[in-house]
Design goal:
Length: 407
């Protein structure tokens, strides 16, 4: 199994003394003692995540407060220590502040609201978080409880628990905003400027599309519209993450893609449940951001093409139903309102296709992802016929709906 290189050797401070203190603090039990050493393992496979360094371990311990020995599997998210793009992006603690707050405060409140109406919002159990002396987030590792990561979702039925989860998350956040006058202020983070730090990746993605317009005659007519779109890209992205004036804002997950969720799978391979992960860029803004991730970054292209409208309807039905059951007194947007908002923000979907779609058509374990993100190496998929077919179809759709301007 190929792992991220920066997860092959854990930093020295992740030692038994550290885990002993974590277990004592998280359990409020100073009598805890470890019964064996904690062996650190890489956290994820190569390509499964990017914005942190992750490790796993098992802690076995005893206490004067119970008989016998207990154990818990942990997964740790830390800041990169080696120089590179990861370290540059995470040079401050902002994303860890958000995620620690989400797991320790906001997600428990969302789960409480859902429980009150007979629903269950699941998330990994928060164990420990700190910014000093080292930045770290520790959660219970649930991978031994039947939760598995999957690739792009290939059936509508397997999309259903995902759609329900994000609708639940959005609806509960709307209710929290009505009772907490500081909720919006506390979740006012914007990913816009940070994401623009991926300048090399963005230029490379759009540069690859421009290369298609030069290499293949059937793409030539997209060249001018793509140039015009790129000229206003930064302004579009900054405005996108500001709270919307045209639809009910929600707390978005913000990094809602196939690698940031785990699934329960039955004997026939069907997804029976889904749990979301990585709440590090949550912010209060338009639901269109998460919904374009829902359409573009989770299902297979075939599922998206066939069920695009049904997925949005499914989300809307869950979202409005949850709000009604929780007693929301405000105006719930109509399905038409939501569709108009999606069209208004469709530049994000074009951005997704330009910057991320090629990853579906490459072996990420066989390529230097950081070099690709920096725009230092050529994209190997430009000659892939399936990739070219999808991009041509989607660029045509963007042109016809006005997301790309032919003026």
């Amino acid at each position: 199994m190929a792992y991220n290189l920066d997860e092959l050797e854990a930093p020295g401070w992740l030692n038994d003394e550290f885990f002993l203190n974590v277990m004592r603090e998280s359990n409020n039990d100073p009598t805890i003692e470890l019964t064996s050493g904690c062996v650190l393992r890489p956290g994820t496979k190569k390509g499964d995540h990017y914005a942190s360094v992750m490790f796993r371990t098992t802690v076995s311990y005893r206490s004067k407060q119970f008989d016998g020995v207990k154990s818990v599997n942990l997964i740790m998210k830390t800041k990169p220590e080696e120089d590179g793009l990861k370290k540059e992006l995470l040079k401050d603690d902002g994303l860890f502040v958000i995620e620690i707050d989400m797991y320790s405060k906001t997600l428990p409140e969302i789960a409480r609201l859902m429980k009150d109406i007979g629903e269950e919002y699941k998330y990994p159990r928060y164990i420990y978080g700190a910014l000093q002396p080292r930045t770290i987030l520790i959660l219970e590792d649930i991978s031994d409880q039947g939760w598995v990561m999957d690739d792009f979702i290939s059936t509508l039925d397997d999309m259903k628990p995902i759609v329900k989860d994000i609708a639940m998350f959005h609806a509960a956040s709307v209710m929290l905003e009505t009772t907490d006058p500081k909720f919006v202020e506390n979740h006012s983070f914007t990913m816009a400027e940070m994401f623009m730090n991926f300048d090399g990746m963005i230029k490379k993605g759009f540069g690859d599309l421009m290369q298609l317009t030069k290499l293949y005659p059937e793409f030539a007519h997209f060249a001018k519209p793509l140039e015009q779109f790129q000229a206003n890209l930064r302004d579009f992205y900054v405005e996108l993450y500001k709270p919307s004036n045209t639809i009910q804002n929600v707390l978005i997950h913000g990094d809602f893609h196939s690698k940031n969720m785990l699934h329960q799978v039955d004997a026939e391979g069907r997804h029976t449940d889904t749990i979301l992960l990585d709440y590090q860029i949550c912010s209060w803004t338009t639901p269109a951001i998460d919904l374009y991730y829902l359409l573009d970054m989770i299902p297979s292209q075939e599922v998206k093409d066939k069920y695009r409208s049904e997925l949005i309807l499914m989300y809307y039905q869950h979202y409005s139903d949850f709000l009604k059951r929780m007693g929301f007194l405000g105006k719930i947007p109509t399905l038409l309102d939501l569709q108009i908002e999606l069209l208004r923000q469709a530049g994000l979907e074009l951005f997704h296709y330009a910057v991320f779609s090629s990853f579906r058509y490459m072996d990420q374990t066989a390529i230097d992802i950081e070099a690709l993100l920096k725009g230092e190496i050529n994209n190997p998929v430009l000659e892939n016929e399936e990739f070219k077919k999808v991009i041509h179809s989607e660029l045509t759709r963007f042109l016809h709906q006005g997301t790309l301007s032919c003026a």
